[in-house]
Amino acid sequence: MSSSDGFLTSLQSIQKNLFRIGGPILLVFGVVSCVVNLIIFTQKNLRKSPCSIYLIAVNIANFLYITLSTLFLILSVGYSIDLTTYNVFMCRFYYYRSYLFDILSAFYLILASIDRVLVTSSNARTRQKSTRHLAHICIGCGTLFWMLFHCHALILMDIQEIAPGYFICYFRAGLYVVFTGYYSLLVKAITVPLLMIIFGIWTTRNIRKVRQRRIAPVIMNPAFANPEDIEPEKRKTIQATTSDSDVERVRRNHLNDIENIIPFVLTGFCYIACNPNATLALWHFRIFFFSRLFHTFAYQIPIRQPSRALAFLVGFVVTVSMAAQILFQVY
């Protein structure tokens, strides 16, 4: 036996053991997760929501996909029991349900995303379209469509002998192989993620519009440090002030940045002139940048001490480290 044959045999053994040990574990975790989700979404206060109905359908599709397709895969790879080669019906039925439940899960998620777009719309009539009745119709019609669409797997899958005495369940040769390849690429790999992204961004924009409408009336008395910044018609009701708490917090944050960033930049130029190790210099700059970024967030949110003190100390240590290396290089 050559070394390459031995290596391939080792890989096959590792794969078989992984499916024997890890496969049942993943199967149990998947089933338990789907059952827990179904218990949650079927609660009385949740199952009235159209979105919950879509998520219930998602978990049912995932449950069927895990218990049927994954179980067949574990038996085939882990225990060399390939049920799809026993007869043509098992071969075709395996691929049919794999295609069906795989796309149904994604399809129901897209319906849930569309429902979120409807619910978050600023238009009252659009929000009224999110109903349980529409959810049931979409799920029923969509399921029927995909069941009929994937009937090709019940006709064009065959048991083929690729070597003497070795049979596999595979696509019928010809255009059907090309079709399945493009289908997996265009529908599953491109269209489904693209639609999820589009509806997710759409929902986010709707939520921001609603928040802006709610927040806008609250801003009644903005703070101005200079009288000339106030609109003429509002100068009688708004007075210039330098004691606004929010403005003062931002000002103190800016002062702290000036006190730390300017020395760092000047030290950094001298440090680069000394031709330091590129990786070490890059990590100095990265650590300082993230320490100041965290310091800004900690100042503005605000986060309790010693969060700001630690962020300041990290940036200070970076500056001192560069200064020390400059001195060592010069002297």
Automatic annotation (TrEMBL):
The keyword Acetylation belongs to this UniProt entry's keyword annotation: yes
Domain G-protein coupled receptors family 1 profile: 32-199
Transmembrane segments annotated in the record for this chain: 20-41, 53-81, 93-114, 134-155, 175-204, 309-328
Superkingdom of source: Eukaryota
InterPro entries in the cross-refs: GPCR_Rhodpsn_7TM (IPR017452), MAPEG-like_dom_sf (IPR023352), Membr-assoc_MAPEG (IPR001129), MGST1-like (IPR040162)
GO CC terms of this entry: endoplasmic reticulum membrane; mitochondrial outer membrane
Topology of the protein relative to the lipid bilayer: Multi-pass membrane protein
Keyword Hydrolase part of the UniProt annotation: no
Single Gene Ontology MF annotation: glutathione transferase activity
Cellular location(s): Endoplasmic reticulum membrane; Mitochondrion outer membrane
Matches recorded under SUPFAM superfamilies: Family A G protein-coupled receptor-like, MAPEG domain-like
Catalytic activity, EC: 2.5.1.18
Alphabetic keyword roster: Acetylation, Endoplasmic reticulum, Membrane, Mitochondrion, Mitochondrion outer membrane, Transferase, Transmembrane, Transmembrane helix
Catalyzed reactions: RX + glutathione = an S-substituted glutathione + a halide anion + H(+)
Subunit structure: Homotrimer; The trimer binds only one molecule of glutathione.
Family (UniProt): Belongs to the MAPEG family.
Described function: Conjugation of reduced glutathione to a wide number of exogenous and endogenous hydrophobic electrophiles.
Protein name: Microsomal glutathione S-transferase 1
